[in-house]
Amino acid sequence: MSATISLKSTRPRRSDATLSFIQYALVIVGLMLLVGTVKPAFSDSRKDDGGQRQAAAMTESVAPTATSPATVSPSLMAEEEASITTAEAQAVPALKEAVKKETFAAAPAALRPSLQRALDYVSDRYRVAPEALVPIFETAQSVGRERKLDPLLIIAIIGIESRFNPFAESPVGAQGLMQVMPDIHKDKLPEDAGEQPFLDPVTNIQVGVHVLEEAIRWRGSLTGGLQHYGGSPTDPATGYAKKVFAEKQRLEKAAKRGSNSRA
């Protein structure tokens, strides 16, 4: 009877030991799983912290260079400013020279004093504002120099033909300062002529002088050329040429004596 009792008491002990072992094993497995879960999270957080620290370090190392002038050496800044100032100082004379050349090329030559006095005379005689006569006299001066003609001769013809009215038009269709016939002398226009080139003072004088040169060559003399230009080549009295010469003489006197000279 005692043996039976002892056997029964032994079985519960074995069952308790087995249960304890299983519980212990489960605890170990749970701990292992817990450690396996926490460890990657901890390593990721360390990685994030490390990345943030590296980014902050890179920002700190780059930002002062880009934005903070305090990181630049004062001597280096002084050298850069000096080099910029030197470059500007070297560029200024070249720029001034370029502007000077462009202005000189664009602006017409100033009138000679004698032509200026003749201009004053014409302004008084024909009652034309001096400002309106300046481009006419400047063109006569430049074209006369180019064509080897006395500019006062050109101005005298303008006075006889149009009385310095650039919009003058004759009953037969002659136009402008020198009363050029458009239908006959279109071939003498420059390539850059506008829509109404014969009413442009500069173009009209250029074409008119060209016509006069052809007439002089055709007739063989200045008087004959003037008669041809005036439309009366067969006039034995050469009335047109005489009028031009008389006007030219008045201009010459005015050019010599001053703006108070009158006819």
Q: What is the second-level CATH architecture of the largest domain?
A: Orthogonal Bundle
Report the strand count: 0
Write down the CATH topology of the largest domain: Lysozyme
- Low-confidence segments, given as residue ranges, are 1-15, 53-72, 94-107
Name the beta content range. Answer: under 5%
Instruction: Please estimate the helix content.
Output: over 70%
Shape: rod-shaped
Largest sheet: none
Distance between the termini: 175 Å
Protein name: Lytic murein transglycosylase
Pfam family, one: SLT
Domain Transglycosylase SLT: 143-216
Keywords: Membrane, Transmembrane, Transmembrane helix
How would you explain this protein's 3D organization?
- The protein is mainly α.
- It contains nine helices and no strands.
- It is 73% helix and 0% strand.
- Helix 3 packs across helix 9.
Topology summary:
Layout: H1 2-67, H2 74-106, H3 113-126, H4 130-147, H5 151-162, H6 182-185, H7 201-219, H8 222-229, H9 239-257
Helix pairs in contact: 3-4, 3-9, 4-5, 4-7, 5-9, 7-8, 8-9
